[in-house]
Amino acid sequence: MSLNDKKPGKRPLYVYTLVAVVVILILNMLVLPTIQERSVEKTDYTTFLKNVDQGNVTKAEIQDDYIYYVVEKDGAKTVCRTVRMEDSQLVDRLYAAGTSMEVVEPQKPSILLNLLAGYLIPILIFVFLGRWISKKMMNSMGNGGPGGMMSFGKSNAKVYVKSTNGIKFSDVAGEDEAKELLTEIVDYLHNPHKYADIGASMPKGALLVGPPGTGKTLLAKAVAGEAEVPFFSISGSEFVEMFVGMGAAKVRDLFKQANEKAPCIVFIDEIDTIGKKRDGAGFSGGNDEREQTLNQLLTEMDGFDGSKGVVILAATNRPDSLDPALLRPGRFDRRIPVELPDLQGREEILKVHAKKIKISDSVRFDEIAKAAAGASGAELANIVNEAALRAVRDGRRFATQADFEESIEVVIAGYQKKNRVLSNKEKLIVSYHEIGHALVAAKQTDSAPVHKITIIPRTSGALGYTMQVDEQEHYLMSKEELENKIATFTGGRAAEELIFHSITTGASNDIEQATKIARAMITRYGMSDAFDMVAMESMSNQYLGGDSSLTCSFETQTLLDKKVVELVRRQHEKATRILTENMDKLHELAKFLYEQETITGEEFMKILNGPSGSAEA
Ligand code: ADP
Ligand code: MG
Ligand code: ZN
């Protein structure tokens, strides 16, 4: 068959032969009987009886359900079949008519038909199927049709050029630093000779590092868009294939194509998937594939001529897990940090995305940006979209400030859970808890004022939440500010203790946060007398929440734990003191929140600074 000479997959010939034989047999079993069936004429019982009486029936075979019989009339011989009826005289009748009762063989179809149906057609089907498959394979080798399962065999040289959708630097808001660093690469791609003439060689690779959703992928596309060069893009996870050896083959293909299309950009997204540190121990044999792919990548990077105009960009959010070999000079030696946007950056990103939707003129982006502290570019894009969705849901044609404020909470704190009902007692506890946080925060001089307090439960599991907004962006935190933060976290529990004399599970998140800060103060910021400026912990994975590992002895750890407890307890006591001193305000505010479910920062401050009992007014 034509399959064999087209170097198909790795499946040997005998598999195909076996399949073919089986299919032919099955067809034989199915097709031949039907052909035979067709040559039998179906008649009704009356016709049968008539034929018997006329003496035309020469043979008859009585089966359980059917009677097969042969009619000879005018020299022609027909095999017929009729349904068998309950007929006690049948045998007598047949006997009288001189019919021989023997097995009736349906007429054999002609040998030609037999051959045709049983063998030739299946073989033809196979030939065509084979042709079709090999054609498909040729196609996907040629122009990079979707690979998928059908394109078995080698990596069939997919073309990796992706469209950048005309993305330019102007589509990336904020991130000025990263853009500046990348501008040089754009210039180089525009005019490689300028650099080659002077003898300067561009770094082969640049690594975009930063937390998820900060626009790394977007920036890489923008570089290609600005430079107007082909953009070869592949994600690290695409290398990890189901067939062994495919990853390395893909890398080879990718660079071969890139070399042909230079100047161009090769972008490897999520490079950590293949570029993880290789562990010498080799415990887990399963990582062989990844290692091969990585080795191939290193080889290719070393192998190609830096002056040709191929720039390799890669992105990752875990730079410290990358294999050091990747970061060696001559490989990804340029690191481009893509950090979370600051206040101004957030505002710009919001504006870029808000261009795509209709908004009312009263929307204040600076306010929204302020409230969305810590949000990444992707989250901000999501906030804008959520706001638009909310406007549609409410039948408005423009998104308003309120839409944005609500969507911040949706994106950051999870959806409002309207159907989750708290009992009144629970609601009261949550009210006091949240006011406890807010009151402690407000009464400490360095603490940020509250922006909004709500006891509407969120899908994220938080029953209520106090949103604090820093007036200005903080980069340095003083010891006092950190201590105040801890006190604020303990404020919720402190209020519960003071009012209800019992404690609930509601403070679990607060406890976690407070502990984190307290620990960091001692182990990393050198803010305790006991350990002075000695680092007790080293951080890794800083972009993904951070993993820390202790770097101190066992005895020190015990002491460290004790110090953390002391620190938190001191702040907890401070929070309790603040609340006791402001007991009437605590009651008043909690009652107000209980009734309103949501109060804004202004309302809060008004009650706090107003005369006692003003909430009733
Ligand atoms: P990363 O690759 O860093 O995880 P992406 O580049 O995939 O993040 O960003 C996801 C989306 O977030 C982008 O498509 C874009 O809509 C939005 N986004 C992120 N950062 C920015 C930014 N600085 N300016 C505009 N949009 C951004
Ligand atoms: Mg990405
Ligand atoms: Zn709390």
Explain this structure to me?
Helices cover 50% and strands 12% of the residues. By secondary structure, it is of the alpha/beta class. The strands form 4 sheets. The chain has a 5-stranded mixed β-sheet with strand order 1-4-3-2-5, covered by helices on one side. Helix 12 (343-354) packs across helix 13 and helix 14 packs across helix 15 (401-413). The longest helix has 33 residues, at 111-143. It is elongated and about 125 Å long. The N and C termini lie far apart (93 Å). It binds adenosine-5'-diphosphate, magnesium ion and zinc ion. The site of magnesium ion (MG) has 4 residues, from helix 7.
Give the topology, please:
Layout: H1 13-38, E1 41-42, H2 45-53, E2 57-62, E3 66-73, E4 76-83, H3 90-96, E5 100-101, H4 111-143, H5 176-190, H6 192-198, E6 205-209, H7 216-227, E7 231-235, H8 236-239, H9 246-261, E8 264-269, H10 272-275, H11 288-303, E9 310-316, E10 334-337, H12 343-354, H13 365-371, H14 377-393, H15 401-413, H16 424-443, E11 450-454, E12 465-468, H17 479-500, H18 508-523, E13 537-540, E14 547-550, H19 554-581, H20 583-596, E15 598-600, H21 601-609
Parallel strand pairs: 1-4, 2-5, 6-9, 6-10, 7-8, 8-9
Antiparallel strand pairs: 2-3, 3-4, 11-12, 11-15, 13-14
Helix pairs in contact: 1-4, 5-6, 5-7, 9-11, 12-13, 12-14, 14-15, 16-17, 16-20, 17-18, 17-19, 18-19
The structure holds adenosine-5'-diphosphate, magnesium ion (MG) and zinc ion.
